[in-house]
């Protein structure tokens, strides 16, 4: 078995409201960052896992996204896989 | 003025406890993903902003991180700047 690091980038789906992003944008405006036109807040999840092959590591990370990490209705995700820690 | 997209990647500082990551790891284990050895949960913030130069866009995003977006005691951040939307 080899060790892998999978970086999972989860973002609110385009076109959907992102209340957290809007709240951050409002806060930035009141801090005088008036040139900020849009803010979207997502999550960055770094997983360390063991797997037999690159393929099985990626499949496993993808399954974790579908079962737990990402909301398939409101979020998109992508996985960047790196071998080693 | 030009338009920029700044992607801010905020991660829990190495060595610090990450209770959210630990909770996700436990949930993954109970879903039979026993090969997950560590999970760290951070945030991915995408900002669209206007600025005169690349430099001023980056400085501005950096200041937003220090003033609002990141917790300087517990989190690290990096900024990836892209010109255009």
- The best one-word shape of chain A is elongated
> Biggest β-sheet of chain A, characterized?
3 strands, antiparallel
Assembly annotation: homodimer
Task: Tell me what the CATH architecture of chain A is.
Answer: 2-Layer Sandwich
State the end-to-end distance of chain A.
13 Å
| Proportion in β-strands of chain A | 35-45%
Sequence of strands across the biggest β-sheet of chain A? 2-1-3
Question: How many domains of chain A, as an integer?
Answer: 1
**Which pair of chains forms the biggest interface, and how many residues does each contribute?**
A-B, 34 and 34 residues
Low-confidence stretches of chain A: none
Indicate the structural class of chain A: alpha+beta
Would you give an account of this structure?
The structure is a homodimer of 85-residue chains. Chain A has 85 residues and is an alpha+beta fold. The first copy, chain A, has a single domain (2-83), classed as Phosphoribosylformylglycinamidine synthase subunit PurS (Mth169, Chain: A, 2-Layer Sandwich). The first copy, chain A, is 33% helix and 42% strand. Chain A has two helices and three strands. Chain A has helices at 19-30, 54-69; strands at 2-12, 36-51, 75-83. In chain A, strands 2-1-3 form a three-stranded antiparallel β-sheet. Chain A is elongated and about 50 Å long. Chain A starts with a strand and ends with a strand. The mean pLDDT of chain A is 95. At the A-B interface, β1, α1, β2 and α2 of A face β1, α1, β2 and α2 of B. β2 (36-51) of chain A pairs antiparallel with β2 (36-51) of chain B.
């Amino acid at each position: 078995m080899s060790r892998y690091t999978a970086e999972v980038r989860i973002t609110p789906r385009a076109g959907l409201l992102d209340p957290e992003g809007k709240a951050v944008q409002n806060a930035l405006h009141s801090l005088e960052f008036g040139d900020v036109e849009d803010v979207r807040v997502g999550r960055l999840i770094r997983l360390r896992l063991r797997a037999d092959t690159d393929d099985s590591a990626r499949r496993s990370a993808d399954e974790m996204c579908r079962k737990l990490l990402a909301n398939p209705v409101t979020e998109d995700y992508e996985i960047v896989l790196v071998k080693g820690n």
